[in-house]
TrEMBL record:
PANTHER family: FMN_FAD EXPORTER YEEO-RELATED, MULTIDRUG RESISTANCE PROTEIN NORM-RELATED. NCBIfam families: matE. The keyword Phosphoprotein does not apply. The chain crosses the membrane at residues 12-33, 45-64, 84-105, 125-145, 157-177, 183-206, 233-252, 264-286, 306-324, 344-366, 378-397, 403-422. This is Probable multidrug resistance protein NorM. It is found in: Cell membrane.
Length: 436
């Protein structure tokens, strides 16, 4: 029951940014498939940024979980503030890029001139929003690590409701507001992200059990640990997400319709990944706390139990994706050809959702142990040495087009799962010690 109580709120909370991106995609979908392509490309770019820089929150999550289990509360707060300092440093170049880089980013990916013209302003607003996302994930990493997953859930609900209302109002110019089109979706996202960030900051400073209002001095040793662990986790996630930029570029090369179908599928699947991410986060928290308590055998059994419970959630979801593929596609567009391509991808995806979710759970368990170096190396190796070349060969050399792209992606997911589960079985649990 504890696993479920931690995981369900986590899934809801983590769905915040994902659902906000999907809502924007649905709302602007009525404006045309070029708008779908523009929003979809932006979502992939933000996914890559989150993979690299949002990793600070994941590092804080596992470091605080271990020290919370060891009842070293001062360290919990110190690591959180260190994450804030690091995020502040990284936000500066992202803010600068938000004003000067969007047009070049679209062109590098290979988007058409139409999509570049449509999406540049939207991407600028999303980059500014991302700076708030980074700060929010640091605070969320701390909050979840101390066992509270409901407060992040409330934050996510507030953000989603606000984004839905504002997107509809600002995109179409309702209730006397100006009709901003795709820019309205960008402004809605930014406002919702700011509100969510304010919520978690207030919560952090109101925690009574830990000295959160005592701002610690900068400590080089702790900064080095947070930077190092964040870099490992970020590069691990970047192994997949950066490869997905090339994946998107392949789709753009096939054509705007194929790109639209790919972006719809990627955004829909990002929602399907949430149970795996949620259970993986729960594994990080509970395993990290058990290691902090020096109860390593219980930590290992906890990971196995979470994997079993996660499978029970993922199987029904895969069935829904198979039988409701067309209905899901129609939420985003009424273009017959785009729907046809999207349905094929989603039906194929239903067979791989279970494995994909489970690899995320095992990755979370390995993160709780502190195996971030292995996760990083494996993800980068399989992503760039295996996934990208295989996908290119199937798509263009074998002339399989969109189908070849997605087959390459699913084979990659299976390879990740196998690599992670082998590592989990080989861990010498009796020798694991708390990090930092």
């Amino acid at each position: 029951m504890k696993i479920i109580n931690l995981t369900i709120p986590t899934i809801i909370a983590m769905s915040s940014t994902t659902i906000m991106g999907i809502v924007n995609l649905i709302i602007v979908g009525s404006l045309g498939y070029e708008h779908i392509g523009a929003v979809g490309i932006t979502n992939v770019i933000i996914l890559n940024l989150f993979a690299l820089f949002g990793a600070i929150g994941y590092a804080i999550n596992y470091l605080v979980a271990q020290h919370y289990g060891a009842k070293n509360y001062e360290k919990c707060v110190n690591y959180t503030y260190t994450g804030i300092y690091l995020t502040l440093i990284l936000s500066i170049p992202i803010l600068i890029c938000s004003f000067f880089a969007p047009t070049y980013i679209y062109k590098i990916i290979g988007a058409s001139e139409t999509i570049v013209a449509i999406g540049t302003g939207y991407l600028s607003l999303r980059l500014i929003s991302f700076c708030f996302t980074m700060f929010r994930t640091v605070f969320l990493g701390f909050i979840r690590a101390i066992g509270d997953t409901k407060s992040p859930m409330y934050s996510g609900i507030i953000g989603n409701v606000l984004n839905i209302v504002l997107s509809y109002v600002l995109v179409f110019g309702m209730f006397g507001f100006p009709e901003l089109g795709i820019l309205g979706a960008g402004w809605a996202f930014l406002i919702a992200e700011i509100v969510q960030t304010i919520y978690v900051v207030i919560y952090f400073y109101l925690v009574k059990e830990l000295p959160t209002r005592q701002i610690p001095p900068f400590r080089k040793g702790e900064f080095k640990i947070v930077s190092s662990e964040s870099a490992k986790i970020g590069l691990e996630d970047l192994g997949m997400s950066a490869a997905m930029i090339l994946f998107t570029a392949f789709a753009a090369r096939l054509g705007d319709i194929e790109l639209a179908a790919t972006e719809i599928a990627l955004n829909v699947l990002s929602l399907a990944y949430l149970p795996g991410i949620g259970f993986g986060t729960t594994a990080t928290i509970l395993i990290g706390q058990k290691i902090g308590e020096k109860n390593n055998i219980a930590a290992r059994l906890t990971g196995v139990k979470i994997l079993k419970v996660g499978a029970m959630f993922l199987i029904p979801l895969s069935i829904v994706y198979f039988f409701a593929a067309e209905q899901i596609a129609r939420l985003f567009t009424d273009d017959t050809l785009v729907i046809e391509y999207t349905v094929i991808v989603l039906m194929l995806a239903s067979f791989f959702l279970i494995i994909d979710g489970l690899q995320l759970v095992v990755a979370g368990a390995l993160r709780g142990v502190g195996e971030n170096t292995y996760l990083m190396k494996t993800s980068l190796l399989l992503g760039w040495v295996f996934f990208v070349p295989l996908t290119y060969l199937l798509t263009f050399v074998a002339s399989m087009g969109l189908l070849g792209m997605w087959i390459g992606f699913y084979v990659y997911i299976v390879a990740l799962f196998v690599a992670f589960i082998i590592k989990y079985r080989k861990i010498e649990w009796g020798k694991i010690e708390i990090r930092g």
